[in-house]
Amino acid sequence: MPTFDAVRYSEEFLMNLDRRTVAREITNQNYSPITNARAVKVFQASDLSAPDKNADNSVNIQNPGGGETTMTLDEERDLTVGIPSVEEFQSSVDMQSKFQERQTQAGEEDLDDFILGKHTEAGIDLSTTATTPDGFGDKVRDAKVALSENDVPRSQRFMVLTPHYADLVAEDAGDRIERNTEIEVDGYIGRYQGFDLFESTGIVEAGSKQHLLFGHRAAITLAVQLNNAALIPDSEQAQFHGDILKALMVYGGQTFLPSALGDLEADIPS
């Protein structure tokens, strides 16, 4: 059996998630992993103040000036990745291309669905029945004003849209949508009305409504680790011709700043 570099594989896997998930672009990532642990040390380096969590919450949150806290990773996903040869996979100078070639982006939808579900913790609630580009554009501007009224910084604001509402914004904005060349994640649309706009098919639907998440990326802290990465022995691979890698992705998230997070409830288009 070839030598499997679990540390490198884990690091490259997480880098791949950074490049391919909306969740990693709309959350605070200032944390330090604890090896093989189910918790991470979180450092809230933000110009927004983070209040303490409630006493009945198992996570003890401290203000940024107070240093660190611990956030539990209470979500998990078993990953199984089949590749022709682990030696070929690891010999690549750019393992990222190998991840994409082999479609080993398992876990992407889990992260996006998890973060987009945080609309239930938002401190700003807006709704719209707009069906026209200018009508929905007005609601985007309302979201901008609501954040400003809560003293949310203008930088690093985001909004996640369904394809339908992304099309309405594109019609309303025209050539006024700007590109941020530092953002390369799949689904990135551009910047408009102070928001980095993203398109996702993972928007939460309830009844006849869709919940479009918007806010400041410091509002939610997301932590992801890859644990127990291992190469499965040939004897356990059944009829698969190649190598099989397995790992456990553990992740968690906390909404530290509900006043910097919004839920725009919009009609599901007919």
Task: Please tell me about this protein's structure.
By secondary structure, this protein is α+β, with helices and mostly antiparallel strands. Helices cover 24% and strands 31% of the residues. A hairpin with a 2-residue loop joins strand 7 (188-192) and strand 8. Strands 5, 6, 7, 8, 9, 10 and 13 form a 7-stranded mixed β-sheet that branches. It has a 3-stranded antiparallel β-sheet with strand order 1-2-3, with no helix packed on it. The chain has a 3-stranded antiparallel β-sheet with strand order 4-12-11, with helices on one face. The longest helix is centred in the middle third of the chain and has 17 residues, at 133-149.
What's the number of structural domains? Answer: 2
Number of E-type strands: 13
Shape verdict: globular
Major sheet characteristics = 7 strands, mixed
Distance between the ends: 55 Å
Low-confidence blocks of residues? 50-64
SSE order: HEEEEHHHEHEHEEEEEEE
Based on CA atoms alone, the radius of gyration comes out at: 20 Å
Mean pLDDT: 81
Helix-strand makeup class: alpha+beta
How much helix is in the residues? 10-25%
Number of helices: 6
